[in-house]
Amino acid sequence: QEWLQGRQRPLPAYELVSESGEEHARTFHVRCLLSDPALEAEGNGSSRRAAEQDAAAAILTQLESLKP
């Protein structure tokens, strides 16, 4: 988000793709979507926040590969 804010770009949107596992051992699968530039990545984690962070890290990797 800092990378995007520093470049006056829209913030990402996160959507929950799925949850699985028992209550005490859930796994969350989240999709991170950017509109400018148009990118998408997915992440997993033991909490929704952890899954969002995993997806955001994947998006950041994509953004860094776009640098001129």
Short description:
The chain has 68 residues and is of the alpha+beta class. The protein has helices spanning 2-6, 48-65; strands spanning 13-20, 27-35, 38-45.
Would you kindly provide a written description of the structure presented here, covering whatever features stand out?
This protein is an alpha+beta fold and 68 residues long. Helices cover 34% and strands 37% of the residues. It has 2 helices and 3 strands. It has helices at 2-6, 48-65, and strands at 13-20, 27-35, 38-45. Strands 1-2-3 form a 3-stranded antiparallel beta sheet, covered by helices on one side. It starts with a helix and ends with a helix.
Radius of gyration: 13 Å
Bin the helical content.
Answer: 25-40%
| Strand line-up of the largest beta sheet | 1-2-3
Average pLDDT figure: 90
Oligomer state equals single chain
Order of helices and strands: HEEEH
Helix tally equals 2
Biggest pleated sheet: 3 strands, antiparallel
Distance between the termini: 20 Å
Main attributes of the structure:
68 residues, alpha+beta, three-stranded antiparallel β-sheet, 2 helices, 3 strands
Fold blueprint:
Elements: H1 2-6, E1 13-20, E2 27-35, E3 38-45, H2 48-65
Antiparallel strand pairs: 1-2, 2-3
